[in-house]
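Run: sequence + flavin-adenine dinucleotide -> complex structure.
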Amino acid sequence: MRATALVVGAGHAGLAMSRCLTERSIDHVVLERGEVANSWKTERWDSLRLLTPNWQSRLPGYGYAGDDPDGYRSMGETVAFLERYAEITCAPVRTHTAVSCVRRTEDGYALATGQGEWRCRVLVLASGACNIPNVPALAAALPSNIATLTPMQYRNPGQLEEGGVMVVGASATGVQIAEEIQRSGRPVTLAVGEHIRMPRRYRGRDIQWWMDAAGILDQRYDEIEDLVRARNVPSLQLAGYPDYRTLDLNSLSALGVKLVGRLAGMREGKLQFSGSLANQAALSDLKMNRLLDALDEWAARNAVGAQAEPRERFAPTRVPASPPISLDLKRGEIRTLVWATGYRPDFSWLDVPVFDRKGRIRHDGGVVDSPGMYLMGAQFLRRRKSALIDGAGDDARELSAHIASWLAGRAAHPHERSGAPRERTAEV
Ligand SMILES: Cc1cc2nc3c(=O)[nH]c(=O)nc-3n(C[C@H](O)[C@H](O)[C@H](O)COP(=O)(O)OP(=O)(O)OC[C@H]3O[C@@H](n4cnc5c(N)ncnc54)[C@H](O)[C@@H]3O)c2cc1C
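>> structure
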């Protein structure tokens, strides 16, 4: 079977690219191992809501049309949103078609799938940035009576034994899961490493509104000073609760969650925590305040300030004066450990030499270092918002333009842009 272009993955990134390829009359097929929106259907916990407001899920030719633009979609609503997008764009998706191997051919790529071989000239990798949860090596040494879970295995507190729970990681996933488990009556200890504190609402508006309006989410990969760092910053400490409340270390402490430093190792059955909790919290407060300063300055320059509520600052993060630096698992305090230590993509099926020494795909703004191969949906691929649903549209428009030029025999420049960048403000 053959198509000019093959897209691997029918999440929002693959669907946005499909729509842009259709607009350019480039024949293509989207190969999906599960169903449309598979990750949202099968890999998320029950109570999860998007941390981006409804208005902020703009895809090429599609957006939110309901009466709750500031609300946050449940998983069911997210799946329905993407299924509807696939339907209205008539995306040529082949479901239950897992790509198990990709190799280079003379004129493109050959893809082995459970449904036979596909060939193409252009290959778009839209298989997701969060396929595998990161689990530190020390997990292997944990005593067998401690149950461990990744966020992909976690569904709700009911699946956990009674007793204490250690959540490792305090970015969006970790703080949300910690809060839910603590509220279920299981005492939570949260190991806190680097994190980015963020108020849910600021001066009467959603923080995402501010970052979108001030152009922070549009910052481009070719304008940023430290791209490697930007591609590795943790997710913002945010949750999409219907009551718009802020979720941070202070709100967790108020619920009774115990804070400890970053999990640094394990010795003789004791978890060891770094002594950096106070520093990490202070650094996070500093970064948040720097961002809020930048937003205030932007607001003042752009006459938004007069309409917005007054400038506000938040109480510094409270941390215990001397948090424990070890925890003896033999004491039985902890029955379950949840690894909220980030995610990484899975390209184990890509048998083309496009990886750097750290196993990351070599690419320039999504133009992969192999002729006719493209990447979508990765963190800061072309813009700060690239891994968000809202970021796929601009990336797909630019990369589909590159694909069209490449197919026409014109080598386009990867930095090709479809519009002028907006005024630059702070970096997060
Ligand atoms: C817990 C969590 C919460 C998030 N919350 C938000 C949020 O609130 N707002 C927001 O904008 N973003 C959010 N994101 C980020 C982002 O939207 C997701 O990472 C998103 O799923 C990425 O979209 P994607 O289309 O690139 O990948 P995915 O949605 O993961 O889609 C990739 C698709 O490729 C398929 N696939 C993978 N490998 C193969 C293969 N070998 N063969 C065939 N098919 C394959 C998968 O089944 C999947 O359907 C969140 C991410 C996570 C992990």
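>> summary
The mean pLDDT is 94. The two ends are 45 Å apart (CA to CA).
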